[in-house]
Fold this protein.
Amino acid sequence: MTLLAVEGLTISLPTPGGPLRVVRDASFALERRQTLGIVGESGSGKSMTALAIIGLLPAGATAAGRVMLDGEDLLMASEERLCALRGNRIAMIFQEPMTSLNPVHRVGDQVAEGLILHRGLDRAAALAEAARLLDRVGIAQAGARLRAYPHELSGGQRQRVMIALALACRPDLLIADEPTSALDVTVQAQIIELLRGLIDDFGMALLLISHDLAVVGEIADRVMVMYAGAVAEEGPTAALYAVRAHPYTQGLFGALPDRLARKGRRLAAIPGTVPLANELPPGCPFHGRCPKAAPICRETPPPWASHAADHRARCYFPGAAR
Amino acid sequence: MSAAASLVAAEGLTRDYRLPRVGVLGARPRLRALDGVSFAMSPGRSFGVVGESGSGKSTLARLVMALERPSGGTVRFNGEDLFALSPDALRARRRFFQMVFQDPNGSLDPRRRIEWIVAEPLDVAEPDLPQADRRARVADMLAAVGLPEDAAQRFPHELSGGQRQRIALARALVTAPALIVADEPVSALDVSVQAQVLNLMMQLQETRAVTYLFISHNLAVVEHVADEVAVMYRGRIVEQGPAVELLARPAHPYTQALVDAVPDLAAAGTRRRRTVLRDGGEPVPGGCPFAPRCPRAEARCRSEDPALRAIAPGRRAACHFA
């Protein structure tokens, strides 16, 4: 059975001006041992999608559609049930581990807490397991590091601790929201390598959320590109990166500084900015910035167009970039 | 290049910070954030500085901006030693070097209108400028950075991140400076907006002959913008040279590691692994600071600190094997 199947997910946030639909009709699936990358800029809805899956949407937000974990609809689950699943079957790591770790508790106790809570270990056994986990995520002298406070660790080490925390109960699904964006590039490479190894060892699925096309391309089996709350394109990583069927995907790649390009050449910036959720135009959300926009794009949202059996884009005029 | 022809010439710049006392009666250890850094910048060109967090690149920026005094060494701007000037004389020079920061939210006063924010540097630079001329100058600057005239009456929160960074550039340029120090100017921006701001910076350089000291952890961005690049590690320049040449054929193992750590977009979906630079222990005093992490380190590297020396015309590196 598919581990995670999201169908028609729509998320609304309450605002004084009425509900704001920050994610609209997102559907995707994720199998065990697979990595799905969600790529998008600010306001694309990628983080909200993740929070809906783990049941941590902000107060007042509502989610419609279905989020099926092994056939169980998480949107219908009680808070009690979600509590039991979080940290146990689904775990999440964030961009800045300093804000997710408790600054006044030793990292060993923080990792052990989940083991005591979810796996019923006693304190001594939990600390021993915590040391083993810290060692697995690459913390040198893990046994001694159990007594360290988060501020005594580097950014990369803190992210390793967060990953150990997330792994404590061997989750089936790990959600990582910009896990390497605050890290130096050499540390980023270490963390990506670690995540890859963990997927192979633990057999978990990874939902990786990032604005960084290069990082996602390195680790994801499939990629979903989101724009202004909607999925623009979805497909296998190599195919999507090579074909770039949606004009927004083409724009994202074109805007990247190219290492081999002549110095001083202008980058192909996407003109304008992402529309706010309360100012979404009718039709395709990208039409105002799209070089291919035609009258129909301003009127009716485009249907899915298939590029291949497992590769599709929501555009009237999809095509290969090159 | 002779020192006389350079716009900025730093010589032996060192900066120590005192850390908090160790225990109640303990000593206050010193942290050497910058360790004997020398370089020269040609007018009208872009000098890029790359390095990871803690490498000293932001300290370098603050010294070049004369925002703090070095513990040793000099910064010459147009041949004048900035730290030998009287406070009044230094204040009079400040209009010729301005700064742009990473986070435009933190650097723009949220209670002021854009017009006030952009015009503020003129208070010191040209206090006698009539009000009408100030307005005209602001309008010119807004046009130069591609913002509509009515942006003048707005507040920073009414603008997007990219627009705020345009405002930061307009404010930096209003005194017609020769030098702009840009510390991670596009790191907080979405990819599509980042490209807009980079294009704008290059266009402003062409039309206004401004010189950039461009600091970034992003190699691709630096390579796109910079003519000359300095790579920093633990407070020192470990390699310097023409941007394209240096990044295509790094001479220092640390530069090589930085280049290798950049994920390759063309390899997306192939699961190709990056070469990962490991963390190392503390360097041995008197040895090469990079030796504990260096794949090429030999006994000599732990006993003899390599000097930054010329390895080819226009190129310097601090490695025994370069």
In short: Chain A has a mean pLDDT of 91. Chain A touches chain B through 49 residues (CB under 8 Å). DSSP finds twelve helices and twelve strands in chain A.
